[in-house]
Design a protein that fits this description.
mainly alpha, Rr_diiron-bd_dom
Amino acid sequence: MLSKIPVDIKSVSEEDIDKEIIRAAIVAEIDAINLYEQMANLTKNTYVKDVLMDVAKEEKTHIGEFQALLLQFDPQYKKEVEAGARDAEEVLSK
């Protein structure tokens, strides 16, 4: 993604705008995690690696914050996340 909102915000209805913004924020955080972890795996400098991994960890916290918001703003999303969790639990219990 790298600093570009993946949706044309102007074409999104007013009732959906916050959900789209939150989704874009989640995508940005995932991109950041991937970037920081990839860079951490490239460096041989322990200090640089530790800082990059710490920052990646913080981005994961941000995803949790945005996820909590999205679960409040999008009831269908909440329902599907819960269904997916049940499906995953079923697979893992086999």
